[in-house]
Write a structure and sequence with these properties.
The chain is of the alpha/beta class. Among the domains are: 130-275 and 417-455, 3-Layer(aba) Sandwich (Rossmann fold); 479-526, no CATH class; 540-802, Rhopdopsin 7-helix transmembrane proteins. Helix content is 44%, strand content 13%. The protein is built from 23 helices and 24 strands. An 8-stranded mixed sheet has the order 5-4-6-7-8-13-14-15, with helices on both faces. The N and C termini lie far apart (148 Å). The relative contact order is 0.07.
Amino acid sequence: MYNFNCRLVPKNYQHVLALVFAVNEVNENPQILPNVTLGFHIHDSYFSERMTYWATLDILSTPYRFVPNYQCGIQNNLMAIIGGLDFETSLHMAAILTGYKIPQLTYGSFAPEDAGQSQSTPFYRMVPNEAHQYTGIVELLLHFGWTWVGLLAADSESGEKFMEILQTLLFQRGICLAFAERTPKGSYFEEYYDMISQWLQTYYMIAESKANAVVVYGEDKSLFFLQIWLVAGEVENVTSMEKVWIMTAQLDFSAVAFRMSQDMQPFHGSICFTVHSNEVQGFKTLLRSLNPFMAGEDGFLQQFWQDTFHCFFSKSSTEFSEPCTGLEKLDSLPSSGFEMSMTGHSYSIYNAVYVVAHALHAMFQSWLKDRGIVRRWRPHLQKLQPWQLHPFLRSVSFNNSAGEEVSFSEKREFEAGFDITNLVTFPNNSFIRMKVGWMNLDAPPGKEFSINEDKMVWHRSFHQVPPLSQCNKKCPSGTRRKKKEGEKFCCYDCAPCSEGKISYQKDMNDCVGCSEDHYPNRNQTQCVPKSISFLTLEEPLGMSLAFGSVFSSLLTILSLAIFMKHQDTPIVRANNRDLTYVLLLSLLLCFLCPLIFLSRPDRVTCLVRQMAFGMVFTVTVSCVLAKTITVVLAFMATKPGSRMRKWVGKRLTSAIVLTCTIIQAGICTVWLGTSPPFPHFDKHSVRGEIILECNEGSAAMFYCVLGYMGLLATVSFVVAFLARKLPDSFNEAKFITFSMLLFCSVWISFVPVYLSSKGKHMVAVEIFSILASSAGLLGSIFFPKCYIIILRPDLNDKQQLIKKK
C-alpha cells in the first residue's frame, strides 16, 4: 500500500471497502478459484496527470523499486486493473497499459462514443453505455416539458463530447439551451478562492436565466466546486438560486472532511442519473463492524476515521481536540461524507472483482479440460500473462450475490441501464437517494424510460410542481407557435389558429384542419361532428312551407269544386271549361310539388322533384298561354267575315298544351340521359353542417327547363298584354296579364336569390317561388270568377257577358 500525506476523500473510501469485501468473498468461496488467492494493490491518481502516470508505472515495477518494465524478487501476478474513477484518469492509464495488453476495468469513466478508440483501448466498462444517459436526459426533459434548459459541463475531453452530443439530441427533440457553460478546471488541492470570480460570473448569468432545469456534467470533483460556487453566491449576497439540478452519473457528493458540513440545501430535489446499484448482502454488516483499532493492514481506516469524526489517535498529530474511541458509528455521518448504502461506483467495483475472478476461473477450467490435472495449475500461474485473460473476460456471464446478471455487450460495456434518483436533503447535510425511475435502452419497447412523479420531492421554493423551465408560457389550445425573429425556436409568440383549423394540444407548432365531416368549435380546440342538414317537415320553416302548400292545394280544390258545380253557368262555359279544369288540376299539382322537396333527398326524389316541377309548371303555363290565345282568337272571330272562327275550339287549346308539354318533356329526357340529378353531401358551404341536397347534375339543363317555362310565360304575358284593352265583360285578358306579370316577377327574382342561397335555404327559395307563382295564377285568374259565381250570381249571366260598354 502507498499512503501519501494527502487528505482522504471519505466518500471514496467506500470504493476501497467494496474492493476488499469482494476479494474476501471470492477467496472464501470454494466454488470460485479453489486453491487460488486473489490479492490487490491500491494506488491513487490524486486527480493529477503526473501522479496517474507515476502510479501506473509503479504497478508495472518491482514492489518498492520504481523501475518500470523490470521485475525481480517477489513476483506479483498482475492480471487486471480496476480504475480509474474519471474518464481522463482512465485514458492516461490506458496510454501505458495498452502496450502491455493488460485488461482495464473502468468503474466510473464514461468513454465517448468513438468506435476507433473503443478498439484501441483495453477498456472493459463496468458501467452502461453513456448513450443511455444522453437519451435518458432528453426523455426526462420532455417528460416534464422542460424546453428551456441550461448546461454545465466540465472543461475536459469527455465534457466537450457530452456537450456536443447532447446539444444535437436536444435540438432534434425541440429543446433549447438557455446557456452552455464550461466549468473551470481545478483539483482538490488547489486554492478554490482563485476561481471565485470566474464562478460568480457564471453564477450571475444562470441566476438571471429563466431556465429552472440545469444539466450538470463532470467528474467527481466538479460537484465539489459546484457546492463551493453556490455557497460563494450566498456569501456574496447573490439572490438565492433555486434550480432543478439534473446530474449525470459521473457526479457524486464527495466532500473532503473539512467540507463535510457544507450546505446541501441547494441540491434538495435534484434529479440524478446513477449507475445501477443493488444492496449486497453483508456489506452493511462490514461497515458497521469497522473498528480503527483493529485496522490490520488497512492503512486508510485510521486516517478516514480521524478525518470524518474529527478525533485523533495517540500516534497521530493533535489537529483535533478529541481522541478517537472506536465507538463512533458510520451511521451518524452525513451522506455527503459517507453513505451506508452501496453506491453505484462501489457496486461496479464489486462486480469488477467478480468479473476478473470468473474470467480466471473459466481460464483455469479451460486448462483443466486440456490437461486434466489440478496440481499443474500452479506452475502455470507464474507464467500467466494478462493478455491471455481477454477472451474469457469478453464471454464472462454470471449472476452476482444480489441476483443480477453480469455480462458485457459486444462493445465490452456492462449490459445495464441507469437508475434515476431524487435527492432529498436534511438540515444535518445528510441526504437520501430515492429511486424514482430508470433508463435502459435494452428494455422492451415502450419501457426504456420510466419515472414515477408521485415519488418526486421538489425544492421548497417552487410554487408550482413540477416547476416550469420554458422560455415563455405554453401556447394554449386554439393557438399555435409563432416564431420570434432573432430568438431561438423555443421562444415564440402565440397566434390564433386560422379559420377552419384547430390546435387540440398546448404548444402546437401548426394548427390542423378538421376532416370534411367535422368543424372547429368556437375556441378552435377540437373538431365537432357536423350535423346533416336538409329541409324537413319537422322544422318551423318546413312546416310553414308545407302548410302553405296544403292550404293552397285546398283552395285550388275548392275552386275546382266551385267550377264543376257551376259548370253550366255562362262564366264557366265562356272560359273553356275543359281547359279550365286542366289548369286547375295542374295548379293543384304545382301546390303539391313542394312536398317532394320537403322529404329527405335520395336518388328517387332527386330524379323526380325537378322533373315533376318542370313538367307540371309547363302544363300550367301552356294552359294559360292557350287560354290567352283562345281569348284573343275568340274576340277576333266575332268580327264579320273573320277566318279565325275555325281556329277557335278545343283542338287548338289541346294542341298548344300538348306541344308545349312535349317540348319540355324532351328537354327533361335529355337532362335525365346526360347528367341527371343525384343526392350530394355538401360539406363546405355552411359551417357546422353537412348539407344533404340534390345536385342538379347539369346546371345548364336545369336552367333550360326554367328558361323554357320563362319563354312560355313571356309569350303569354305579351299576348295578354296586347289584349288587355278588350272589353272587361267579354274577356279575362287583364287578369291573365296580371297573373303572368306576377309569375315572371317571381321567377326573375328567383334566379339571383337561389344562386346566393345555401343549404336548406336554397330549397326554401325554390319552394317559395313555386307557391308564390302558383298562388299568383290561382288568385289572378280564378278568384275573380269564384267571386262572381258565389257572391255576384247576378253577373253570371249571358247578357252580362255579351253586353258592351
